[in-house]
């Protein structure tokens, strides 16, 4: 058996190495998921963020010409305010965040930040001004400190720890035997979805961008974790112009405006209260989600009593 287990271990090792290689390549593509045709125009200047106002004006966009995704979208995120985009799966919510980063160019209309068209500024300055807390955070195979410091590589240890505390992950890190030196990622300690998201929040706190995109996780988190993450997100978005891409509705209640996207157009817009009162698509989504949450809770309680 010993003779067999050594080669098996070895095969396991090779398998993990290959898988890791693939993950690294995938991560690289994710990070560099920018079509090659997007380049700085000659004479592009650095984006100058004064207040951080975002404006989409009659934006039309299709990944391929045969299927329009956005058909004339106009909205504003005033400086320091929070606007949430909701809508059925595939409606184009995440597309809006990709367009703000100018990962693609739009076919018609304009997207501006403080009056500057995203096509006229350097991509480096544009991406430097926007912080993103993604749905699924990619962790590097390195220490947890490295992963947080990625937000601003010159940050000192104290700043890293402060950011972790603000993101509500400091206590968790402190109780790990190796603390901030704990290796994470595929080859190290595996963090849960909620823990990874808090690492992303800590990164963003360090980066301190004037504009923030929160791409809310699709997967349901337990209520306690969700509350912790919510308070960390509230903290990071305070005073920053924030666009929330909401796949669930729990984070949008406090948004200054909610935009309901459907079939490429804005179907409804308003505050949570106003949208509930008008008993339209948003109210329907809200009811359905509440029913689903209640069913989940019931199932969880039934399992606990088993
Ligand atoms: P979800 O809530 O499910 O994440 P979403 O509203 O964020 O959905 P998007 O990711 O913006 O939806 O996608 C909008 C549409 O564009 C989808 O139909 C999707 O299949 C399509 N799409 C997304 N990315 C690409 C791409 N790179 N190339 C072609 N089509 C794409």
TrEMBL record:
Q: How does it sit in the membrane?
A: Multi-pass membrane protein
Which keywords describe this protein according to UniProt?
ATP-binding, Membrane, Nucleotide-binding, Transmembrane, Transmembrane helix
| Superkingdom as given in the UniProt entry | Bacteria
Alphabetically, the GO molecular function entries are: ABC-type transporter activity; ATP binding; ATP hydrolysis activity
Q: What is its main location?
A: membrane
Q: Where is this chain's protein located in or outside the cell? A: Cell membrane
Q: Which residues form the ABC transporter domain?
A: 54-288
Bilayer-crossing residues are: 1-15
One of the record's GO cellular component terms = plasma membrane
Give the protein family.
Answer: Belongs to the ABC transporter superfamily.
Spell out the protein name for this chain. ABC transporter ATP-binding protein/permease
Q: What is the lineage of its organism?
A: Bacteria, Pseudomonadati, Pseudomonadota, Alphaproteobacteria, Hyphomicrobiales
């Amino acid at each position: 058996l010993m003779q067999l287990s050594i080669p098996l271990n070895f095969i396991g090792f090779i398998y993990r190495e290959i898988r890791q290689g693939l993950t690294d390549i995938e991560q690289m593509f994710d990070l560099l998921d920018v079509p090659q045709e997007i380049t700085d125009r000659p004479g592009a200047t650095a984006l100058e963020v004064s207040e951080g106002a975002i404006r989409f004006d009659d934006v039309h966009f299709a990944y391929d010409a045969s299927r329009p995704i956005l058909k004339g979208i106009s909205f504003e995120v005033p400086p320091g305010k929070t606007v949430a985009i909701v809508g059925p799966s595939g409606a184009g919510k995440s597309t809006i965040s990709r367009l703000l980063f100018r990962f693609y160019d739009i076919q018609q209309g304009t997207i501006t930040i403080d009056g500057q068209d995203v096509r006229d500024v350097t991509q480096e300055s544009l991406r430097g001004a926007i912080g993103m807390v993604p749905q699924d955070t990619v962790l590097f195979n390195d220490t947890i400190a490295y992963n947080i410091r990625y937000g601003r590589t010159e940050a000192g240890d104290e700043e890293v720890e402060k950011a972790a505390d603000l993101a509500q992950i400091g206590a968790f890190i402190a109780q790990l035997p190796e603390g901030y030196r704990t290796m994470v990622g595929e080859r190290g300690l595996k963090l849960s979805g909620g823990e990874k998201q808090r690492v992303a929040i800590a990164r963003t706190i360090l980066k301190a961008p004037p504009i923030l995109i929160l791409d809310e996780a699709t997967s349901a988190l337990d209520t306690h974790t969700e509350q912790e993450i919510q308070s960390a997100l509230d903290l990071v978005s305070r005073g920053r112009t924030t666009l929330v891409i909401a796949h669930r509705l729990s984070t949008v209640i406090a948004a200054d405006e909610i935009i309901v996207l459907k079939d490429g157009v804005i179907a409804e817009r308003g505050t949570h209260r106003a949208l509930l009162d008008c008993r339209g698509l948003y109210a329907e989504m809200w009811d359905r989600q509440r029913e689903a949450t209640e069913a989940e809770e019931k199932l969880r309680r039934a399992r606990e009593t088993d």
